[in-house]
Design goal:
The chain has helices spanning about 15-30, 50-60, 75-85, 120-130, 150-160, 165-175; strands at about 5-10, 35, 65-70, 95, 110-115, 140-145. It is an alpha/beta fold. The chain is globular and about 45 Å long. The model has no long low-confidence stretch (mean pLDDT about 85).
């Protein structure tokens, strides 16, 4: 949309997470806000990917900084309260699942970190990335993935090279195919 800033997108490995957090802290010190997106709500097969585990990592790093938690199992009133607090800049870092994918507009948020980026489709990653770059300041999206699969790395690097949603959709169609029009396969 007109007036949006370009969003720089980077792919990093988990050992560089602290560096990404340092980048977030720099932006927060400048008065900005950040999103940190996790793929899971509860602990399960991959505890490191759960929002509960990630919240601990974030709180350990950022200390007393105002941090909010947002996920789909929260009651609507709780979610609304967290989003209002984030929009009012009462929260500096919002740790969330994909519930922020659509309809969230906080122009002061300039950094997004997406943990386990390989678990998301390109369209979801593109939508999530669109939550930053809404204000006048430069914005970036940092994808974190430890998946070394060639197809996964190519897919994530493609997203780093383009901000064109049509190009993302075309690439996704070319690499994954159209799905099953009349069946249940996607």
């Amino acid at each position: 949309p007109p007036g949006r800033q370009p969003i720089e997108t980077y792919l990093i490995d988990p050992p560089k997470r602290r560096r990404a957090f340092g980048y977030i802290k720099k932006h927060i010190d400048e008065g900005r806000q950040a999103y940190i997106v996790c793929p899971l709500i509860e602990e399960g097969e991959s505890d490191a990917a759960s929002i509960a585990a990630y919240e601990k990592i974030v709180r350990d790093y950022f200390g007393d900084m105002p941090i909010g938690i947002l996920h789909g199992k929260m009651k609507p009133k709780e979610k609304d309260a967290v989003m209002r607090a984030f929009a009012a800049h009462e929260i500096d870092v919002l740790v969330s699942t994909t519930v922020i994918e659509v309809g969230v507009d906080v122009p002061n948020a300039t950094v997004m970190v997406i943990e386990n980026a390989e678990r998301f489709g390109l369209s979801a990653l593109h939508q999530l990335r669109g939550r930053v770059g809404r204000g006048a300041a430069n914005s970036c999206c940092i994808l974190i993935s430890d998946n070394e699969g060639e197809a996964v790395r190519q897919r994530l690097h493609f997203l780093c090279r383009t901000s064109d949603g049509f190009a993302v959709a075309k690439y996704d169609l070319e690499t994954r195919g159209p799905g099953d029009f009349f069946g249940e396969a996607q």
